[in-house]
């Protein structure tokens, strides 16, 4: 089945790429998760728009990645507010979206949520944490934030 990817899929391609995959993979994984759309004539015309949107979010070059790293390193008051129990345990866990929203709230750069590398064990208690943000293949930043009760 011929599809157009709407998001980056590991070992398959980036947003805007036209790929050929097996029917079951398309029907059971890519299409239900909105990672791809069927490649019709009308959809093929939309590829440019998808690629432009992806480029707007992406780090442009090495110098831009360094600038964003400096901005991330300067952030020191990033607080992720979540619902917690009386003992400080979270109802759920901290997700990448929560971190991106907290960075934007304090005036930090717009980060791609897929660039944030969460620890193997989920963040399920209040406290201070550090995550790595892979801005460019050669540039990474460490983001310090605090999980607080809402």
From TrEMBL:
One of the GO BP terms on file: translation
Gene: rplI
Keyword RNA-binding: yes
Described function: Binds to the 23S rRNA.
Cellular component GO terms held in the UniProt record: ribonucleoprotein complex; ribosome
Keywords tagged on the record: Ribonucleoprotein, Ribosomal protein, RNA-binding, rRNA-binding
SUPFAM superfamilies: L9 N-domain-like (SSF55658), Ribosomal protein L9 C-domain (SSF55653)
Lineage: Bacteria, Bacillati, Actinomycetota, Actinomycetes, Mycobacteriales
Family: Belongs to the bacterial ribosomal protein bL9 family.
Protein name in the entry: Large ribosomal subunit protein bL9
GO molecular function terms noted in the UniProt entry: rRNA binding; structural constituent of ribosome
């Amino acid at each position: 089945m011929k599809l157009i990817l709407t998001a980056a899929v590991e070992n398959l391609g980036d947003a805007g790429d036209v790929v050929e995959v097996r029917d079951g993979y398309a029907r059971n994984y890519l299409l239900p998760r909105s990672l791809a759309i069927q490649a019709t004539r009308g959809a093929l015309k939309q590829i440019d728009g998808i690629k432009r949107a992806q480029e707007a979010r992406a780090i442009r070059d090495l110098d831009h990645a360094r600038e964003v790293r400096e901005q991330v390193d300067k952030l020191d008051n990033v607080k992720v507010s979540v619902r917690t129990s009386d003992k400080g345990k979270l109802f759920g866990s901290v997700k990448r979206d929560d971190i991106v929203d907290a960075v934007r709230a304090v005036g930090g750069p717009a980060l791609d949520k897929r660039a944030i590398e969460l620890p193997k064990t989920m963040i399920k208690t209040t406290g201070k944490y550090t995550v790595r943000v892979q801005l460019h293949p050669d540039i990474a930043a460490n983001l310090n934030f605090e999980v607080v009760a809402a």
